[in-house]
Structure to design on (97 residues):
């Protein structure tokens, strides 16, 4: 089966194809990342990266299906709540809402 690996490098999204055996689990795909020029999953995890399939967080033992898009997700720079607070502060110039 063929799946896609989505990874962002230098603010550019790479979408790479990967062939796996039928009934493969996510861990099988993660072990093969270096073949695609992506650092090992262990090193990415140490830097705070996560993994999802079509935007839904998955575990390494979850099964993959034909055509799935595995997304290697960079750690958040700020939480969504922090980003909203900063935006509101800029828009209201520090005034009360």
């Amino acid at each position: 089966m063929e799946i896609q690996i989505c990874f962002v490098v230098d603010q550019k999204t790479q979408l790479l194809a990967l062939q796996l055996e039928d009934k493969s689990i996510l861990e099988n795909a993660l072990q093969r990342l270096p073949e695609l020029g992506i650092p090992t999953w262990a090193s990415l995890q140490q830097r705070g990266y996560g993994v999802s399939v079509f935007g839904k967080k998955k575990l390494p033992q979850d099964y993959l299906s034909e055509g799935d898009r595995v997304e290697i997700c960079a750690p958040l720079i700020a939480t969504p709540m922090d980003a909203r607070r900063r935006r509101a502060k800029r828009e209201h110039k520090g005034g009360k809402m």
Observations:
- The domain at 2-92 is CATH 3.10.20.30 (Ubiquitin-like (UB roll)).
- The mean pLDDT is 87.
